[in-house]
Amino acid sequence: MERQPVPTEARSAIDARSIGGAGGSAPGVSMPQAPFSVAVAVQPDSGLEALGQAIVSGLNELSIAARTATLARAGRPDVILLLGAVPGARNEAWFCDPGPGQSSVLALDLLEAIGPGDTGSPAAEAPHIDFPCEEIHAGRARIPAVLLELADSGSNADAGLLVSTISAYFREQRSEVLAARSAPRLIWPAHGPITSHYGVNHPLGIDIGQSAGPIAAATDGVVAFAGGNACCSYGLYVVIDGPDGIGTLYGHLSSITVAEGQRVRQGQILGEVGCTGSCSGTHLHFEVFQSNQRQNPMRYLP
After folding, report:
1. Same domain membership, residue 222 and residue 146
2. Cα→Cα distances 2→171, 200, 202, 290, 291, Å
3. Do 277 and 149 share a structural domain?
4. Taking the CB of residue 178, how many other CB atoms lie within 10 A of it?
5. Who contacts 8 (Cβ-Cβ below 8 Å, separation ≥6)?
6. From CA 217, how far away is CA 247, in angstroms rounded?
7. Domain identity same for 163 and 227
8. Are both 250 and 219 inside the same structural domain?
9. What is the pLDDT of residue 185?
């Protein structure tokens, strides 16, 4: 796998982005061809609890497995929908950027279904409601998530329009949803908290705060590189070329137990965690490449 330099311009941090749209009629209700699932989270004390329950009931009637849940208990559904009420007369839909492309598709569809409300009002520069993109995409970065901020005039939004729009989304995006479910899965190469997420302040990968012990291969594959320089950059590191064009990099190791050209299996020990190279504390720096393009590792981890 080709070594890639640190980019001069990192991708945008995982952040919330608003999407505008004109009012329009929602697509007709149609039962999807797969048991899709939706988690609906409602802002506490928003007065939208009945709307959230009506959306869940409507989706369940269409054989879409829907339930209300807090974000912490949402699990890994095919779609996460957050509902919140804000003062004013303008409805807005927000999605996380960067994130799965289907988030912006669903956000626009939902806003078109209910209408933006007062289009003369300026769009908000940030959500009024906490929309924790990094928390949403920690471990489920392939899952579309949308925050609907409903203005005072939109607090009685038609649940049927939202239900039919979500149903149509699953019908039209069926292949993308199923592809996200079946995407290649890695295992965690280290045990510990994520101390740096993928984003503008850390554009190459994630840091996992393991303080001691072995580092495991996240995927089967062939060792493309094993070495480095303990003084600089990644320090001692390993790169594995895996199946389906997926490559993984393991940086700042204190020692390496594999060699270039060696075939390894998922879970095999590659070396010991450390703090070689440009490092301020013992941890694993972990990167994922798909067809030589850096990716958010959380898209692939369980």
Report:
1. no
2. 38, 22, 20, 12, 10
3. no
4. 14
5. none
6. 11
7. no
8. yes
9. 72
Q: Is residue 189 part of a domain?
A: no
> Do residue 205 and residue 271 come from a single domain?
yes
Is residue 148 within 8 Å of residue 52, measured between CB atoms? no
Query: What six digits make up the tokens of 20?
Result: 């505008």
Identify the domain containing residue 92 by its residue range: 15-181
Phi, psi of 137 (to 5 degrees): -100, 10
Residue with tokens 């749209």: 21
How far is the C-alpha of 155 from the C-alpha of 164, rounded, in Å?
18
The residues, ordered by sequence, that sit 6+ positions from 5 with a Cβ below 8 Å of its Cβ are: none
Separation between Cα atoms, residue 143 and residue 37, nearest integer Å: 11
Block mean pLDDT (10 aa), the chain, length 302: 34 52 39 75 91 96 95 86 88 83 92 83 84 72 88 72 96 88 80 88 91 93 95 95 92 97 92 95 95 87 76
CA atoms within 13 A on the CB side of 178: 10
Q: What is the pTM of this model?
A: 0.61
Q: Partners of 283 in the beta sheet?
A: 274
Report CA-CA distances (Å) from 268 to 58, 189, 237, 263: 47, 9, 15, 10
Whichever domain contains 199, its CATH number is 2.70.70.10
Same domain, 38 and 150: yes
Question: Is 78 a domain residue?
Answer: yes
Task: Assess if residue 252 is contained within a domain.
Answer: yes
Helix H or strand E segment including 134: helix 133-136
DSSP assignment, residue 141? T
DSSP 159: H
